[in-house]
Design goal:
5 helices, 152 residues, two-stranded antiparallel sheet, mainly alpha, 2 strands
Length: 152
C-alpha cells in the first residue's frame, strides 16, 4: 500500500500516513462531487410523490440513489484516467483522485470504474424489473441508438 503525506504543499510536513484500501478508494471516486447526481434523484422522487401523487417505493428510491452514485463514481474515475493521460492532471490538488496522487495505477482505476459501472447497471436493471419489465427493451434500444450516434 502506498502512503500519502496529508499536507504535501505546506511548509510544515507531517509524517507519512499509511492509507487503508477504503481511504484510497474514497479518494479515487471523489465523493465530494456526488451531490450533483444525488440531488436530482431526491428531487425527482419528491416530485413523483408530492405532485404525481404516487406512493413512495423505498426500495426503488434506494436502488435509484445507489445506482446513480455508483455510475457517477465510475465516471469520476474514468475522468481521472483521461485527465492523467492527457496531462491535464499532473500535480495533486485537494480535488485530485488516486491516480495523480500515485495511490493507484491507470489500469487499477480502469478496473474500479468497470466494477462501479457494472454495479450501477445492475441497480438499474433491478429497478426496471421492479418498475415495469417492458421498459427494459426500450432502454436497451435507446442505449444502442445513442451508441451508434456516438460512433458516427
Amino acid at each position: 500500500m502506498k502512503s500519502l503525506s496529508s499536507n504535501q504543499n505546506s511548509d510544515i510536513q507531517s509524517p507519512e500516513k499509511e492509507l487503508s484500501i477504503f481511504e484510497i478508494f474514497f479518494i479515487t471516486i471523489r465523493p465530494f462531487a456526488l451531490p450533483a447526481s444525488v440531488i436530482p434523484v431526491i428531487f425527482g422522487t419528491l416530485l413523483v410523490v408530492t405532485i404525481g401523487k404516487m406512493p413512495l417505493k423505498p426500495l426503488n428510491f434506494i436502488l435509484a440513489l445507489v445506482g446513480m452514485m455508483l455510475l457517477h463514481s465510475g465516471a469520476n474515475v474514468l475522468s481521472d484516467i483521461n485527465d492523467y493521460k492527457t496531462g491535464l492532471d499532473k500535480t495533486p490538488t485537494p480535488a485530485s483522485g488516486g491516480i495523480v496522487r500515485g495511490l493507484i495505477t491507470t489500469r487499477q482505476a480502469f478496473f474500479i470504474s468497470l466494477v462501479l459501472f457494472l454495479l450501477g447497471t445492475i441497480c438499474g436493471i433491478i429497478l426496471v424489473i421492479l418498475s415495469d419489465i417492458f421498459l427494459l427493451p426500450c432502454n436497451i434500444a435507446l442505449i444502442i441508438d445513442l451508441s451508434m450516434k456516438k460512433l458516427v
